[in-house]
Amino acid sequence: MIGTQFHCQYPGCPGVPGKEPPFFGTIKCPSGEGHDLVCGPQVTVDAILEHRGRIVLIKRAKGGVAAETWALPGGFVNFRERLVDAVVREATEETGLEAAQVRFFEVYDDPKRDMADSRNNVSLVYTAIGIGSLKLTPDEKGRYEVAAARCFTYEEIRDEEFRPCPGNAGPGAWLAVVAPGMGISLDDLDQGKFEIGFDHEEILRDYLRRMRTGDPGAIPY
């Protein structure tokens, strides 16, 4: 739903019946013209997550913002949540990996960086190492937050084109996983062009440039 993001200040509050906290809602503009008031900018976090020498991207599900594009793991910071905790939480929710060695990378605050809806989202980007095994886990209602997750080489990201990806890089170390019921197979993630959503192409380009120059510019958290 387009509009501001509300959080109840009381821990454990179920929020609006039928919705999950934090929940989205709108405040109508007093002009009476049917406009929505929006609160902004809103704070988001994104993770440049390295796993087994590759960068993890998630494929956004159909029907959502930037649907079917590839993006960095990330999302909104919850009420009274520290930024670094939000990065770790989002990484685990969307990739199954534990984010370690979390470092601040850069702020992306172009007002037009995310024009998919009415929200003005400022992203604080962090780098991290992904520990564990790549996996997608459904929520308590059996829904998957993302359609797929995959580890990309720097060259794949640079060219936005898949190279053959080994299904298994060691015991339990899958480099690509897909959510059931999304109509995607692992074979779909092995060849052809792909699209990076939001301004994440710019973020990744900045990161790869810093890696090439030997100056990552990341600050230890």
Plain-language structure description:
The chain is of the alpha+beta class. The chain has helices spanning 83-95, 154-159, 200-213; strands spanning 5-6, 23-24, 27-28, 36-37, 42-51, 54-60, 70-71, 74-76, 98-108, 121-131, 146-152, 176-178, 219-220. The model has no long low-confidence stretch (mean pLDDT 83).
In terms of topology, how is this protein built?
Layout: E1 5-6, E2 23-24, E3 27-28, E4 36-37, E5 42-51, E6 54-60, E7 70-71, E8 74-76, H1 83-95, E9 98-108, E10 121-131, E11 146-152, H2 154-159, E12 176-178, H3 200-213, E13 219-220
Parallel strand pairs: 5-10
Antiparallel strand pairs: 1-2, 3-4, 5-6, 5-8, 6-7, 6-11, 9-10, 9-13, 11-12
Mean pLDDT: 83
CATH topology term of the largest domain = Nucleoside Triphosphate Pyrophosphohydrolase
Q: Roughly how many Å is the radius of gyration?
A: 18 Å
CATH architecture of the largest domain: Alpha-Beta Complex
Proportion of helical residues: 10-25%
Order of helices and strands: EEEEEEEEHEEEHEHE
Instruction: Tell me the overall shape.
Output: globular
User: For this structure, what is the CATH homologous superfamily of the largest domain?
Assistant: Nucleoside Triphosphate Pyrophosphohydrolase
Tell how many strands the DSSP assignment holds: 13
Low-confidence residue ranges: none
Number of helices: 3
Sheet with the most strands?
9 strands, mixed
Beta-strand residue fraction: 25-35%
Structural class comes to alpha+beta
Task: Calculate the terminal CA-CA distance, rounded to whole Å.
Answer: 34 Å
Tally of distinct domains: 2
What's the CATH C level of the largest domain? Answer: Alpha Beta
